[in-house]
């Protein structure tokens, strides 16, 4: 997966510049200690666990750090189903495994910019769709993803509602 470190959106008074970068041995400490707001802690795993999981599950999973104006602000895990032989039914899909924005950075449009980057990455990769799921009780996440064009599929996967955004 080729990654552009170019800003996702130009900095404005209300919207900071967001960049997305692969998480590596050299920069993981900048992202591993970020935390969501306490009320969201049951909806997303801690970053240390996310990094361990993505590294245990092979090359289909990739971890990315989200920065705003150079400051670590969040983390994103993507799953390229084309690289997973066990995912033949979802083989043309880029899956958003995790998205988290640090509590101190929330409410600034960073998640929206990060998801715009994901959609562009999916287009660059040529996948049919971007997919994700969220905890059923997290209605805020559902509203957020719907506002970006994602739609529910009707599928429930491990207690989470599945959503797709077609790219083709």
TrEMBL record:
Native species: Piscinibacterium candidicorallinum
Limits of the N-acetyltransferase domain: 18-168
Entry keyword set: Acyltransferase, Transferase
UniProt xrefs under Gene3D superfamilies: 3.40.630.30
CDD domains (alphabetical): NAT_SF
A single MF term (Gene Ontology): acyltransferase activity
Pfam families: Acetyltransf_1
PROSITE patterns: GNAT
InterPro entries linked to this entry: Acyl_CoA_acyltransferase (IPR016181), GNAT_dom (IPR000182), YpeA/RimI_acetyltransf (IPR050680)
Origin superkingdom: Bacteria
Protein name, as recorded: GNAT family N-acetyltransferase
KW Metal-binding (keyword) present: no
E.C. designation(s): 2.3.-.-
